[in-house]
Amino acid sequence: MEAREHTTRPGREQREPSPAPQPVQDIVHRIEEDIVFRAYHPRERLVEDELMQRFAAKRHIVRRALAELERDGFVLRKPNSGAQVRALTAKETTELYAVREILEASCAKLIPLPVEARRLAPIEKIQRAHAAAIAANDVRAVFRANLAFHEAVFRLSGNDALVDAIADFARRTHPVRLTTLVTEEYREQARSEHEEILRALRKGDRPQLVAMCARHLKPALKAYLRTIEHLN
Prior knowledge:
Blueprint: H1 24-36, E1 45-46, H2 48-55, H3 59-71, E2 75-78, E3 82-85, H4 90-110, H5 117-135, H6 139-155, H7 160-172, H8 178-181, H9 184-203, H10 206-215, H11 218-228
Antiparallel strand pairs: 1-3, 2-3
């Protein structure tokens, strides 16, 4: 699954060295975002020396970051060959999304409905930021606002353990997101579906809320499967 084209992609600039040492979590988050935006390609090697220079970090800090990325499914580490960006297979991707659908539908069923205006206001603010990022064609801001929107919606359930599980599985599918984030049509579809979710929360329409949570996962999954169907 080598994808080594040399076109400029969102996030390429993020691979510049950082001016000051960064803690492990900062390094993890930066590399995660680079994987999402294909600054690092599937199966590309992550060279420790290069990461040490980029993040002004000691080797043990870089290794801890790579270990965390491996645990979360972003990276594979093999003896004598170092670390490389993990390439999700069709089977892995389908299974991850099946679990996400179960978790997110279960969470939607727990949200007390209808949601009162004062609790909905912060989520509506996040969605305005999401829409503004789409209008500005700021793909990174779209990505971050999308994550914030869904976390805020699921927090309404009051079940923090379930919300954390949802976030964990969402992170494991981050590499799938680029297939839709870079496409204007899909970004606009996501914006529209967010508005549908807000309407369901406002009106107390649980069947619509559960259905939208499931429907919202489909475009990225289908697009990613199409992109890898001819690859090993």
